[in-house]
């Protein structure tokens, strides 16, 4: 919802602030005062193409700013954040969003979204979600076939929504299975090559049967066998130094044992020597144990079988070859083999999978045909109701011979929303051929047609803000009252902004703004004022009679306001 709109130097408007807010806002004013500039300003604020000629004469640029109330966690706020801007949280999950747009007399422009400069296209995206403008030259919200089908589906209610969801689930599955078949067929040659490569790789790896950590263990064994003589000599020398078998050699064990005996002879004279003597005893035991271990180690070196080093090196070469092809490490080779087997099984079952998927696709196609038929039936029923209700609205809006026609035409191909093409057509009078909305009515009639449609769709397909221009063109009297009444009805669920020249329409507004012009020499400057009380009554009188202070006009205006108050109830 637009809370406030500020306009500077656009057309004849020098500077104006429009307090908008919820409900029905009517914008009135004398001819040439610049009422349509309000619609133009809204168009610019929401991304319409800028016309440098719209900049006020003598001004460097026109500037428009809007203050909006949006859902703080909704799609609009999210798009603002994506664009680098932000919204200001208020209360109740709502937030304030500031948008602005400038247009220079040279044609340059700038957009600011939530405090951050952004492309004009972002304003357009936000406008699509926030505002719908209906006027003589404005783009129709329901111009496209997709938008018309979506509106009809919303009008169709819960039953149609359930049927559409059921269809969509089968359609998505059908599309996915068809795509999988296409991939299997189109990539058959490549998948056969991949399968053969995997088969060869698995055979090679299986033949070698590598074990985790085997390469490290074999490397250590190879190093030991390559240096066995050095290891044997070192072990023997170490053992001789600790405990020699030669009778004339003094080894470490003998020396430690001699030291221990020396201390034991005198330890009774000083207890402090007791722990040292105990340590020497322990050291003697440890050295004897090490001597035994060295003897055992040397014996193990002697037990290596002849040719074992060659066998180890050959095995290492096999593992290295596998790592080079499927590694880089042996652990990678083992992982590759574990992943390759199920993949090969998948590739080898392509033919079976294609056959299986074909059966599934055929079954889903049958389901789609049935579900699409149900959708067509529901849409056809809803289209008749929608057409009848809008046609009844048109009769009350001074178009008694016009009829809305909603065509539902099944196509051959399936789409994500069924196979129906939906088209809204207008038959202007009896005997005429129905034509697309924007070709079946004049500008003012088109606004009334769209008002009738929006009133009928209001609950099923709500829009935050509607703007109507020329909706009362060519009508008056009772028909104008019916237009005002329906705008008031629409304003119960959406914000409605209407540029009007009829008192019968403005009487239903909950917020009345007047665009005033002031002739200052050769330049006309307009601003906007909010009307209440006597000022509003005077404006209503002016709209009725052209005289704001006519007693009869004022009386008629008061009567009209009272009538509007009594009629502004659900119809």
From TrEMBL:
Q: Out of the domains of life, which is the source?
A: Bacteria
The answer, when asked if Nucleus is one of the entry's keywords, is: no
Keyword terms, alphabetized? ATP-binding, DNA damage, DNA repair, Nucleotide-binding
Cross-referenced CDD domains, in alphabetical order?
Answer: ABC_RecN (cd03241)
Output the InterPro entries linked to this UniProt entry.
Answer: DNA_recomb/repair_RecN, P-loop_NTPase, RecF/RecN/SMC_N
Known function: May be involved in recombinational repair of damaged DNA.
Protein name per the record: DNA repair protein RecN
The scientific name of the source species is: Herbiconiux moechotypicola
UniProt lists the gene as recN
């Amino acid at each position: 919802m637009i809370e406030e709109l500020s306009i500077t130097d656009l057309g004849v408007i020098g500077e104006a602030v429009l307090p908008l807010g919820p409900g029905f806002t009517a914008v009135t004013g004398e001819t040439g005062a610049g009422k349509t500039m309000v619609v133009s300003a809204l168009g610019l604020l929401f991304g319409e193409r800028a016309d440098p000629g719209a900049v006020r004469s003598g001004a460097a640029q026109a500037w428009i700013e809007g203050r909006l109330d949006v859902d703080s966690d909704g799609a609009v706020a999210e798009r603002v954040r994506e664009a680098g801007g932000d919204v200001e949280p208020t209360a109740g999950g709502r937030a304030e969003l500031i948008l602005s747009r400038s247009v220079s007399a040279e044609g340059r422009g700038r957009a600011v979204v939530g405090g951050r400069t952004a492309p004009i296209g972002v304003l357009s995206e936000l406008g699509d979600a926030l505002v719908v403008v209906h006027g003589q030259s404005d783009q129709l919200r329901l111009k496209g076939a997709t938008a018309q089908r979506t509106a009809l589906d919303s009008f169709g209610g819960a039953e149609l929504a359930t049927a559409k969801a059921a269809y969509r689930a089968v359609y998505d599955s059908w599309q996915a299975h068809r795509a999988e078949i296409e991939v299997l067929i189109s990539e058959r040659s490549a998948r056969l090559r991949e399968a053969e490569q995997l088969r060869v790789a698995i055979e090679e790896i299986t033949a070698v049967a590598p074990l985790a950590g085997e390469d490290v263990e074999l490397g250590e064994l190879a190093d030991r066998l390559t240096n066995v003589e050095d290891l044997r000599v070192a072990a023997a020398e170490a053992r001789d130094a600790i405990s020699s078998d030669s009778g004339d050699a003094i080894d470490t064990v003998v020396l430690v044992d001699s030291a221990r005996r020396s201390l034991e002879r005198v330890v009774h004279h000083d207890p402090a020597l007791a722990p040292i003597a105990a340590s020497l005893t322990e050291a003697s035991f440890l050295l004897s144990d090490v001597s035994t271990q060295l003897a055992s180690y040397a014996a193990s070196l002697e037990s290596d079988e002849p040719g074992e080093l060659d066998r180890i090196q050959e095995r290492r070469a096999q593992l290295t070859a596998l790592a080079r092809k499927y590694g880089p490490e042996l652990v990678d080779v083992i992982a590759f083999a574990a992943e390759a087997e199920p993949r090969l099984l998948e590739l080898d079952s392509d033919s079976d999978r294609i056959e299986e998927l074909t059966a599934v696709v055929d079954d889903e196609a049958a389901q789609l045909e049935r579900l699409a038929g149900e959708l067509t039936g529901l849409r056809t029923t809803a289209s008749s109701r929608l057409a009848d209700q809008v046609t009844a609205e048109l009769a009350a809006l001074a178009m008694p011979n016009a009829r809305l026609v909603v065509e539902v035409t099944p196509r051959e191909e399936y789409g994500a929303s069924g196979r129906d093409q939906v088209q809204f057509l207008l038959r202007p009078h009896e005997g005429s051929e129905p034509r697309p909305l924007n070709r079946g009515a004049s500008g003012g009639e088109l606004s009334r047609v769209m008002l009738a449609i929006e009133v009928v769709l209001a609950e099923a397909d709500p829009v935050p803000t509607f703007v109507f221009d020329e909706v009362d063109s060519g009508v008056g009297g009772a028909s104008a009252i019916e237009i005002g009444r329906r705008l008031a009805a629409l304003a119960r669920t959406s914000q409605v902004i209407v540029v009007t020249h009829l008192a019968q329409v403005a009487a239903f507004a909950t917020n009345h703004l007047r665009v005033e012009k002031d002739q200052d020499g050769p330049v006309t400057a307009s601003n906007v004022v909010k009307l209440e009380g006597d000022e509003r009554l005077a404006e209503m009188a002016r709209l009725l009679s052209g005289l704001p202070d006519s007693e009869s006009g004022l009386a008629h205006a008061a009567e009209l306001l009272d009538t509007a108050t009594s009629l502004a109830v659900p119809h």
